[in-house]
Amino acid sequence: MRSLKASDVMWNHIEPIRCGAPLTRVVEALLTNHVTGLPVVDDKRHVLGFVSEQDCIHALLVSSYHSEGEPVVDDVMFKSPLTISPEEAIVDLAQRLGRDKPKVYPVVEGGRLVGIVTRTAILAALAKQGAGLGESRFVEQDTP
Fold first, then answer.
1. Is 73 domain-assigned?
2. Does residue 29 fall inside a structural domain?
């Protein structure tokens, strides 16, 4: 049984959030892609931050209460996100879940975002590998 890597389970088809994006656009991207958070990148796909559902909920509530203008992602994103390499072993990543607790990991290679790995993808990969089950048995619930 070979060791799975982040690149084996990462999604590389989701468009990251760009700096300056209105929070309503961020919420739309989260809901459309069925993910709990997304990386925030610059024009060269360097990861500058991470924005989650929780960040959006809080910012939209505060903005609505104070009747302020629409917030942008730069105002609410976490500016020191955990990132991983495409070569990181899924087993190692799974062991970190208890300590770090992110639900989505930005995958970075050469300083640029190349994809994301969700906690659901890690769970599905471990279940398939550990139980020796076929692909059709487990379907990721948060895939678009």
1. yes
2. yes
- Burial string for 60-85 (b: 16+ CB within 10 Å, else e) reads beebeeeeeeebbbbebbeeebebbe
Closest among 117, 118, 116, 143 to 33, alpha carbons compared: 143
- Tokens 């309503």 locate to 24
Residue 144 is assigned to a structural domain of this protein: no
Query: Whole domain around residue 95: which residue ranges?
Result: 6-137
User: Do 84 and 117 touch, CB atoms closer than 8 A?
Assistant: yes
Measured CA to CA, the distance from residue 109 to residue 132 in angstroms comes to 30
Structure pTM?
0.83
Write out pLDDT tens, residues 20-67: 999 999 999 999 999 999 999 999 999 999 999 999 998 988 887 777
Q: What is the C-alpha to C-alpha distance for residues 23 and 73, in angstroms, rounded to an integer? A: 6
The percent of residues above 70 in pLDDT, for the chain, comes to 86
